[in-house]
Structures are given as structure tokens and as C-alpha cells.
Design goal:
Radius of gyration: 43 Å
Helix content: 55-70%
Strand content: under 5%
Distance between the termini: 109 Å
Largest sheet: 5 strands, parallel
């Protein structure tokens, strides 16, 4: 019988013991190892070798079934000795008090005549009586030539340790204790060579070692299966090897568990459930082994071969853990998880760890479980793990018994499900809105969240039905949310039963104020009132503030051109959404802020918001009703930044029917129209812009500050010969912009008004720059500067003004050199250089200007044209402190003290250049 090369050392020791037995020297030998490490194979090899030497061999194998059978192993050992108690040879039970086995002395008497090897396999299953008998035999072994060889595992946690009992005999008898360990990398390489007939690649050997954890039996079976498939042991075959190893390991675990004592299996089950949560002494308590010594239990669990030792205690391999749990019944597994969760809670374990245990447990019916699951769910939501957050909150809902607490948990769960399972989340929110048991405040928040997600006719109908039973302020909020729900098709609201009253004037709540401000803004009427109502909506206490009305208020302030207030409101709303784990609304708010920043000409900030909104929308399974807005802003930002190629493939993407019904669909039509215009497809562009306008008018949203579709369509129509229609659209936009009263909207309309407006090109450009200069450096302002620079030169106007406009335009477009306005600026600069002579250095009023670095000159020029430090920082993508340092350096070099002198210097410089 052959022994694997890795057992050569143990084989040599056993051979020397047998040689000593032939020379009539006695010994006691134990061979221990984890399941599959080959200790029983060594015992069989010793028996075979002893027989070949002419020695007598008595062998036995302990089994779990006979571990309670008195003297069962002794009966097996003596079965081949007919002269010693024939009843034992039959393996029958030995009644107490009579029919006992022969004393060890009787066996030793026969050993004096013939040296004998007693080999016991699976000694860890020895019954207590046989273990005492072998102990007595070992104590007297020096009186006869006998070797006692016991092989087994140390994976026993109760009863006497068979190794200590066997080797505790005093006297001159030699004792050898052999402990088998896992395979080394060299052993694995040898095994691969033997099984496959070729040396394994490095990656293959590493994978084989990792898959088997150094277990010889698992490695042998895995390599046999692999070799039968005829694959070479190279790196390309690692996936096949890993799959075979997983299956073999599962089978090995199943067989190994069947060969372990019940107490050890209970301990492994406890480790599988909470080994990474509780300290090892508490794991022992969970397994019911608190009465045993920790050192003994650690040794027993390590001897199974299923665990690895870490500084914090034994740890199970992932696949072993899975097989252990799969082998338990559902009820036993749920009960063990419940007991582990309670123990972890008492040990002050982390909420996430307690929740992980509760997810696999039966309901425990205690308040601490609900609180732990809620906290763990919120933590997971903030970390972006919405799947785990959903699982924790759903599990908490199974524990909660108080109706109010259940309703709040249902809302929290629905908010999380809107990210992972949107349809389920919408159904839960609809149920909260409909239920008469839902608290009025919670009903309003549920409707607000559902409508922010996209809403539906079902929710609007539920809101209408809930009005009669909803009291006071909550009823006012329901009315506001109802009218915020369906701006895309207001005619549907007229069909609601019961009928919903219109928004009162003045509004009765902050929510109504926010919605009324938006209504006035999109209709383009009464700007001061719209501004006042929007500010009132944003001033509401945070605990009463709703998402949709606040968003409407911020967008209304954007149309009134109160950009700083609008941005502050959106940023505050975004922070609250993150704080309260309402991630489903985050893409919506980010898109609105990106649009605002685009209007202000802050392209870099708009790009960041668009990217963040797209990332958030990808994570939260965004509702199709709000996706057109994000795509529209993305297209406009790409076009304005000069990323024309990025916009082209995005524009023609098809949309679903719900998206076409969205209130944001006109925004996407407008953006697509501009993309087609940039491609030269003017007819298609005009068609899309007109369709955008038709839908806006159908929704009673004529304000050109919302979408200036008329002016863009008019420009294209003039290029295609539709001058009459173009002038009509221009007049309409100018009339509506003046009726609204926002300077930016009027300035843009003035800039795009045709010849019939009563002013020539130069007058329109001057008027537009004057109006737009009071606001941020918007795309409209850049176009107005370009138009002014071109018109001043073409109409023989003020070259000082043209130069100043071109200088400012150069600075404003420098951060996005590939944008269309940057290209136009460069063209205007080249034309200016060809049409006017170069200035002489002596003509410059301040030679110190040449000492400024390009960055200092750019910053100083923007400051001279009236831009604030914060605005300059945003335009140049630097910090405000950097702007201050650059201006301070420029003041020092120019020998001036502040902005007033800087403005005078820049005007003088521009005038000197013009004179030259």
C-alpha cells in the first residue's frame, strides 16, 4: 500500500515503531488531523506493513452509530482472537456487571507469544468503556511487545479527550504523537504533476491551493475529476478547476459533517451564523457549550478542517458556511438566527450586524429589533446600498405592531423601494394615501414623494378622494400637490371625482405658495407676486416643507432671475433629501440645479450636476416622466460647451409613451431642435421648436423665460425664407418678455427681434447688453457681447465699446475653448486685427499692464467689467481665495488701490488701443 509523498515523514516514524515492535519494543502512537488529512490512511498503511513483517494485527474502526455501544471497539479488536470470549467476537453489547471483556492483561499475555499491533481508526468516536480499556492496556504495554496506534480527529468538545487518555500511561513505553497539517504549495505541485502528468502553471497551482485550503482529500478528488476531462493544468483552465473544486468541497463538507459529534456540529452552525459578529466565547454560549473550556473548544473546532484561525477567533470559509446553513431546516436556521441576534443585541453589537442576523431570523416580537433594523436600513441607504436598506425596513415591518409605527415604516420602505423596486414603492405610497388610518401629515408626505417620482392618475385620484377626510393644513397641502401633479395635461384634472378646488388666492399654505408661484411664472404674469410666493414657500419650517412645492418655488425663482436664492434653495433641498434617504428625488433636483447653472453660464458646474444626476438616475431606476428633463439639459450643456459629438448620438434616442406625456417633454423637443440646427437640418429643427411651442401653449405656459423657442425658431425661419412668420414669433416673444418683466428675458428678446422691431442691429445689441449685463454671464449675455462687437464695427460705431466687448468675451469663453461662442470670439478677434492697425507700445497708458501674467490679466479684466469675486471664481473654475490673490497681485503691479482705479485704467487702455 502506497502513501502520498507528503506523509513520508510520518511513514518513516511509523516504520521505525514497527521495527521496534519486531524487536519486541512496545509503543503508543496517536495520529491526528482534520477530516480528509489522511490519518486513517496512515493507520491502514501501518496495519498492512505490520502484516507484511509477520506481526499480528488487531484493527477496529469506531463509528458514530456505535459510540454509545459499551466495549464496541474492544469487541472489534478481539473478534479475530477466538480464544478470547467468543461473545465479544460477535460484537454483542456487554451488560453491566457480567459478560465483561477480558482484562487487558489477558490480551497482553497472548502478545508475549506474538508481537501485536492494535490499530484503531476514527478514535474520536470511541465509546467510554473501550477508551478506558485501551487506557489500561497502554499503562501495561511495557509488559509485552505491543503497539497501540490510534488515529482520529481532535474535533470533540465533550467527554474525555481520547488523545490524553491514550498517551497518559506512565512507564518506559515510548509515546509518539503525529499531527497532520494542510498541504504546502510544494505538495500541491507534486499532486498536480501526479494527477495530470504535467507540471501545473503558477496560476493553476495557486487556484488549486486556494480552492482546497490544503486539504489532501479534497485536492485528490478535485484533480481526479479534472484529469478525467483531459484538460492541461494551465492558467486558461482555472475556471473549470474552480467549478470542480466548489462541487468537491461541498461534497466533502457534507461527508465531514456526518462524521462529527453533535456538539461540534452545533458549534459550527453557531460559527456560520454569527462567527463574524460575536466573540468566540459568546459563540460557544449560543451553541450551548458554555460549560466547556475555551481552549478545548477552539482545538476541537480547528480539528474539523473547516475553519481558519484569525486573531479574532475561528472563521469559516464562505462555501463551508453556506453548506452548513443549507443543511439546517428552515425553522432551526431561523431560530438560531433569532437567538444569535438577541445575544448580539445584549453584547452591544453594531446595528448592521444585529440586522444581518435578524434578516434570517423569525420575528422576535421586541422593540429593540425594530429599532436596530430601522437604524441599519437608514445607514445602508446613506451608503448607497438600497437593496440592503429595503431588506432591513421590510424585515422591521414584520416586527412592528403599533399602527403609527407601521405606517411610518411603510413610508420609509416605499421611499427605498422607489430606488430598487419602483412599482412596489408606488403601490405602497398609493396605499398610504388611500388609507383612512394614515396620519394626515404622513399622507401628504407620501403623496409628495410619489408625485416627485413621476406620479400617476391613480395617485391624483387618491388625493382627490382623500380630501374630504383630511383636516386643516394637510388638506391645503393635498390641494397644492394635486395641482402640481398634472401640469402636462390640466384637462384631466377637470375630470376628477370628487372635484378638487383651485388654488386659493392668496395661498393658504407654503406648499400652495410654491405651486402658485410656479403657475404665475410659467404663465408669465405678475413677476413680483411670483417672487414673493416663491420666497414664502422656501421660508417654511423644514419639518413641514415638501419636495415638489419647494422644487417648484426654486424653479419659479429661476424664471424671476433670482438665481442665488434659487440655487440656495435647491442645494438645501438636496441636502435634506440625502439626510432623509429620499434618493429618488435627487436626480430631479440635480437636473434643476444644472439647468439653473447653465442659465448663469457656469458650464463646468452644470456639467458636474448633469454627471451627478445621471449617476443618481442610473442607481434609482428613474421614472420615465422625469428623464426627458435630464436628457434635455445634458444636450444643452453639451452644445454650449462645444461637445457637439457627445450630443449627436443622445438626441435621437427613442422615448416611451409616458415620457412623451411628461411635463418636461417640451424641454427635450427644444434641445433636439438645437441639435438639428447645429447639424444644418434647419427644417427639422424648426419643426421640433414649433412642436415644443405647441405643447407649451397647450399647457398654458407661454413665458419665454421658460423656453425661448420663438426666438430660436425665428432665427432659423429667417435663414429659410420664412421672414413673415419669424417676425411674428419675434414680436410675440418680445411682448411676452416685457409682460413678464425679467431683464434677462427682455434682453434676449431684444437681441433676437427682427428689423420690424423699430431698431437697427446696433441699437438692439446695445439694448440687449445693457439689460443682460445686470445678470450673470449667461449664454445670452455672451451672444449679446458678440453681437455688439460685430455690430459696432459693421455700423462704424464705437470701437472702444467693440474692443471692450471683445475683451470681455475672450475672458468669459476662455474656460471652454471648444464652445461655439469661443470659436466666434476668435473669429471676431481675427477680423478686428485685420481691420485696425497694431498699437505702438508708447501709446499704452500703463506699461505696467504688460507685467501682469495672463491669469492676472484675465481676472483683472473681469473685475473691471463688474463681475464679483465669486462669479469670477466660478467662471475661471478657481477658488474665491485664488481670485483675491490674483487681484491683489495685479493691484500691486499696476500701482492702484482698488476696483474703481482698475475700471478707469481698463477704459483708458481700451481707448488708447482704439486711438492707435
Amino acid at each position: 500500500m502506497s502513501v502520498p509523498p507528503r506523509h513520508a515523514r510520518e511513514q518513516a516514524v511509523l516504520a521505525s515503531v514497527l521495527t521496534g515492535l519486531s524487536a519486541r519494543r512496545s509503543a503508543v502512537v496517536t495520529v491526528t488531523g482534520a477530516t480528509g488529512f489522511g490519518q486513517d490512511a496512515l493507520a491502514r498503511w501501518s496495519s498492512h506493513n505490520a502484516s507484511a513483517r509477520g506481526l499480528r494485527v488487531l484493527s477496529a474502526r469506531a463509528t458514530p452509530a456505535e459510540s454509545g455501544l459499551r466495549y464496541g471497539v474492544v469487541a472489534q479488536l478481539l473478534a479475530s482472537l477466538p480464544g478470547l470470549r467468543a461473545d465479544l467476537a460477535e460484537g454483542s453489547p456487554i451488560p453491566t456487571g457480567h459478560n465483561c471483556p477480558p482484562a487487558p492483561a489477558e490480551l497482553l499475555h497472548t502478545c508475549r507469544q506474538q508481537p501485536t499491533l492494535l490499530a484503531v481508526e476514527d478514535a474520536h468516536w470511541l465509546d467510554a468503556e473501550s477508551l478506558r480499556w485501551l487506557h489500561l492496556l497502554a499503562r501495561r504495554a511495557s509488559s509485552a511487545p505491543v503497539v497501540l496506534l490510534a488515529a482520529g480527529s481532535a474535533a470533540t468538545v465533550s467527554g474525555p479527550d481520547w488523545r490524553e487518555v491514550v498517551v497518559s500511561s506512565p512507564g518506559p513505553v515510548g509515546v509518539r504523537e503525529l499531527a497532520l497539517g494542510p498541504l504546502t504549495a510544494a505538495h500541491v505541485a507534486d499532486a498536480v504533476l501526479d494527477a495530470c502528468g504535467a507540471p501545473g502553471a503558477e496560476e493553476f497551482l495557486v487556484a488549486a491551493h486556494r480552492a482546497t485550503a490544503g486539504n489532501p482529500a479534497v485536492l485528490h478528488d478535485m484533480l481526479c475529476h479534472f484529469a478525467r476531462q483531459g484538460h492541461p493544468p494551465d492558467a486558461k483552465r482555472v475556471p473549470e478547476l474552480s467549478a470542480i473544486g466548489a462541487a468537491v468541497l461541498d461534497d466533502h463538507v457534507d461527508r465531514g459533517l456526518r462524521g462529527l459529534p453533535e456538539e461540534t456540529v452545533s458549534l459550527l452552525h453557531a460559527l456560520a451564523v454569527c462567527g463574524e459578529v460575536l466573540e468566540f466565547p459568546l459563540v460557544c454560549v449560543l451553541a450551548g457549550l458554555r460549560h466547556l473550556g475555551e481552549a478545548r473548544v477552539r482545538a476541537a473546532v480547528a480539528a474539523t478542517g473547516f475553519v481558519s484561525t484569525t486573531p479574532t477567533g475561528p472563521r469559516l470559509d464562505r462555501r463551508v458556511r453556506t453548506r452548513l446553513l443549507e443543511g439546517m431546516s428552515h425553522s432551526a436556521r431561523a431560530d438560531l438566527h433569532a437567538r444569535a441576534a438577541e445575544l448580539a443585541h445584549r453584547a452591544a453589537a453594531d446595528d448592521r450586524a444585529v440586522a444581518r442576523l435578524l434578516l434570517g431570523a423569525r420575528p422576535v416580537g421586541t422593540a429593540w429589533a425594530v429599532h436596530a433594523l430601522k437604524r441599519a436600513g437608514r445607514t445602508a441607504g446613506r451608503e448607497g446600498d438600497h437593496t440592503r436598506s429595503t431588506a432591513c425596513l421590510a424585515r422591521a415591518l414584520r416586527e412592528a405592531t403599533d399602527p403609527t409605527e407601521r405606517a411610518q415604516l411603510t413610508f420609509d420602505l416605499a421611499a427605498t423601494e422607489l430606488v430598487t423596486l419602483p412599482e412596489a414603492g408606488r403601490r405602497r405610497l398609493a396605499e398610504l394615501v388611500r388609507s383612512r388610518d394614515t396620519a394626515p401629515d404622513l399622507r401628504v408626505r407620501a403623496l409628495d414623494l410619489a408625485l416627485t417620482d413621476g406620479g400617476s392618475d391613480v395617485l391624483r385620484q387618491a388625493a382627490a378622494e382623500a380630501l374630504p377626510t383630511t383636516p386643516g393644513p394637510e388638506r391645503d397641502d393635498l390641494i397644492a400637490l394635486f395641482w402640481a401633479a398634472d401640469q402636462a395635461a390640466p384637462e384631466r384634472a377637470e375630470l376628477m371625482v370628487p372635484e378638487v378646488p383651485a388654488l386659493p388666492d392668496p395661498p393658504a399654505s407654503p406648499a400652495q405658495a410654491g405651486q402658485r408661484a410656479w403657475q404665475l411664472a410659467v404663465r408669465g404674469v405678475n413677476l413680483p407676486v411670483a417672487r414673493q410666493l416663491a420666497r414664502a414657500a422656501l421660508a417654511a419650517p423644514a419639518r413641514r416643507a415638501l419636495i415638489l412645492p419647494r422644487l417648484s418655488a426654486c424653479r419659479a425663482l429661476c424664471l424671476t432671475e433670482d438665481y442665488e436664492e434659487a440655487e440656495a434653495g435647491l442645494t438645501s433641498l438636496l441636502a435634506e433629501l440625502h439626510l432623509h434617504d429620499l434618493g429618488v428625488a435627487v436626480p430631479h433636483v440635480l437636473t434643476a440645479r444644472a439647468e439653473l447653472r447653465l442659465r448663469c453660464g457656469r458650464l463646468a458646474a452644470a456639467q458636474r450636476d448633469v454627471a451627478a444626476a445621471e449617476t443618481a438616475a442610473y442607481r434609482v431606476a428613474r421614472h420615465p416622466l422625469s428623464m426627458p428633463h435630464l436628457r434635455a439639459v445634458r444636450l444643452l450643456v453639451d452644445l454650449e460647451s462645444g461637445h457637439h459629438r457627445d450630443a449627436l448620438p443622445l438626441a435621437p434616442e427613442p422615448e416611451t409613451r409616458p415620457a412623451r406625456d411628461s411635463g418636461y417633454w417640451p424641454h427635450l423637443l427644444f434641445a433636439r431642435g438645437l441639435v438639428h440646427a447645429s447639424e444644418g437640418d434647419l427644417r427639422m429643427a424648426v419643426g421640433l421648436l414649433k412642436e415644443c411651442g405647441r405643447q407649451l401653449l397647450n399647457r398654458h405656459e407661454p413665458n419665454p423665460a421658460l423656453i425661448p423657442w420663438r426666438s430660436f425658431a425665428a432665427r432659423l425661419l429667417r435663414m429659410t425664407g420664412g421672414r413673415t412668420e419669424a417676425e411674428r414669433l419675434s414680436r410675440d416673444e418680445l411682448r411676452l418678455a416685457r409682460g413678464w418683466g425679467a431683464a434677462g428675458a427682455i434682453g434676449w428678446a431684444e437681441l433676437n427681434a427682427g428689423p420690424d422691431a423699430g431698431q437697427d442691429r446696433l441699437s438692439r445689441a446695445r439694448r440687449a447688453v445693457h439689460l443682460l449685463r445686470s445678470g450673470p454671464a449667461s449664454p445670452g449675455y455672451l451672444r449679446a457681447l458678440a453681437e455688439l462687437a460685430a455690430a459696432e464695427r459693421a455700423k462704424n460705431g464705437s470701437r472702444i465699446t467693440a474692443t471692450a466687448a471683445l475683451d470681455e468675451l475672450s475672458v468669459l469663453t476662455s474656460t471652454h475653448p471648444h464652445s461655439p461662442m469661443a470659436a466666434r470670439t476668435r473669429l471676431l478677434a481675427r477680423l478686428a486685427q485685420r481691420t485696425e492697425p497694431q498699437p505702438r507700445p508708447a501709446d499704452a497708458p500703463s506699461p505696467a499692464w504688460a507685467e501682469l501674467s495672463p491669469r492676472e490679466a484675465r481676472t483683472a479684466l473681469l473685475a473691471a467689467h463688474g463681475h464679483s469675486n465669486s462669479h469670477i471664481a466660478e467662471l475661471l473654475s478657481v477658488s474665491r481665495r485664488t481670485v483675491e490673490l490674483r487681484l491683489s497681485s495685479a493691484y500691486t503691479k499696476l500701482r492702484i488701490s482698488g476696483r474703481q482705479e482698475l475700471r478707469a485704467l481698463v477704459r483708458a487702455r481700451e481707448g488708447a488701443r482704439n486711438v492707435c
